[in-house]
Amino acid sequence: MSQTMETRYTHSPEDIRHYTTEQLRKEFLVEKIFVPGEIMLTYTHNDRQIFGGVTPTNEPLEIRLSKELGVDYFLERRELGVINIGGPGSITIEDKKDPMKKQDGYYIGKGTKDVVFESDDPTNPAKFYVVSVPAHHKYPNVKISIDQITPRETGEDLSMNKRKIYQYIHPNICESCQLQMGYTVLEPGNAWNTMPSHTHDRRMETYLYFDMEPDTRVFHFMGKPDETKHLILSSEQAVISPSWSIHCGVATSNYTFIWAMCGENITYDDMDFVPMEELK
């Protein structure tokens, strides 16, 4: 089994003021998430979130982190969210095996020892996107299918942001300590994931952009409202968005993304919208 975990550190807005494009990408963009037969993780010091891809092929894969986290096993003091964006597979949690088709998700609570990921077909592997954050309490493990979720429909064609938001790990669906996770699908002809942009000082966020054509690119905006920066992403790349940063993006065509948040609360609508005239 091959497992890699890269560490990313936190930055103040003043740190990035004079960053080159290369520096900005190095600190906030994760270019490789899914590698067949491997586990690729990133540990960000922004609220100590761990995120990445588990892509089993011929052999099952299991995340093994103990010494790195100062614990005996990975989820001793953490909770975990999973969404499969690839081929059909399965997750075995402490001898209980569940099938995981594309768009199936799972919430796995603190104290769960054994979590094994498998693909049904090595030539069409499952792509498990995983997000883990520190947890103080054990909540029940819950399998979550997109078929169980009534999407929140928002936006309009006129402003190019008509989209469906599927809330997976959210108080409406299951309990968690601080992790929130969901799946947003933009309708054809729409490109903005949100505008006006917003910040949420009480929570950081990571985004995985995917289900994009090879030539489609996302322009992900970040930075303080009066000092915006941007990163350009292709399909199946992720970005770290600090709590002080604006959260918004636009692409050359419609796309899908997974958002994952953690921090002070689990109130999805705890956002501070930025008036258009304040953006620079």
Q: Can you say what the CATH homologous superfamily is?
A: Jelly Rolls
Helix content: under 10%
How widely separated are the two ends? 46 Å
C-alpha geometry: globular
* Side-by-side strand order of the widest sheet: 1-3-4-10-5-8-11
Whole-number tally of structural domains: 1
Q: Structural class per helix/strand content?
A: mainly beta
Order of helices and strands: EHHEEEEEEEEEEEEEEEEEEEEE
Strand content: 35-45%
Average of pLDDT: 92
Q: Report the top-level CATH class.
A: Mainly Beta
The CATH architecture term is Sandwich
Low-confidence stretches: none
If you compute it from the alpha carbons, what radius of gyration comes out, rounded to the nearest whole angstrom? 18 Å
Beta strands, count: 22
Structure annotation, total helices = 2
What's the main sheet like? 7 strands, mixed
CATH topology type:
Jelly Rolls
